[in-house]
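Q: Sequence in, structure out?
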Amino acid sequence: MTSTIGSLQRQSALDPLDNRVLLCHALGVNRIALITQSERELTEEEAQRFAALVQRRLDGEPIAYIVGQREFFGLPFDVSSAVLIPRPDTELLVELTLERTPRNGRVLDMGTGSGAIAVSVAHTRQDADVTALDVSADALAVAQRNAANNNARVSFLQSDWYGALQGAAEADAFDVIASNPPYIASGDHHLSEGDLRFEPVGALTDHADGLSALRTIIAGAQPHLKPQGWLLMEHGYDQAQAVRELLKAAGYSEVQSWQDLAGIERVSGGKLPG
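A: Exactly. Output:
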């Protein structure tokens, strides 16, 4: 029995948006074509390809991994199982970074993953000198591809946090250091639920109390920040107060947290005194 594009849209067991995205991907068409070609019958090969994608989604695999792409900050980003899927919450960190980056300023994105933060900043502020680092060579390959695809000028380094920056000249210090590090505590039930089951565990959890990566970033940032430079970090929904206390203990000023669109304190940061 043959199926039309329209019938597959009406009869799917998936969420309508998921179904539409997978149907576009399976057929290599855009959303408009699904409407204008709604009565077109699928070939056997197309039907099998779509059915395989639907089964992957029913098995829980994230849509972004199935189609290999996710939009972030208005830009298309390639994603794979080597990197976290960029999420809208992290756009707040990009906005705060852009606001605090002076003309021709220098920005460091630590643990860049897909490159979402670094590429978004570099694409928006082409005057900025943006550096991104990650310990994973596979993640850096994805980030480099995203920088090229979005015409963003970013320097990439393979580094375990500040390792590759040791001995850098004072002139190479940054105006802003931004990071979305692993901050889910070991054993948190969220790691075995939803999309997180498929994402790289090392990019999600620090295998400790959820604050160890944030402590490392705060402890090592000052030699790499210019006077009055900003350190900005994304963190968990219940970690804002703890991160603010860590920043204050390290001597940062203007320490504060910012809420995401859901009203959750999602990013905390502070300024290095002049």
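The chain has a mean pLDDT of 93.
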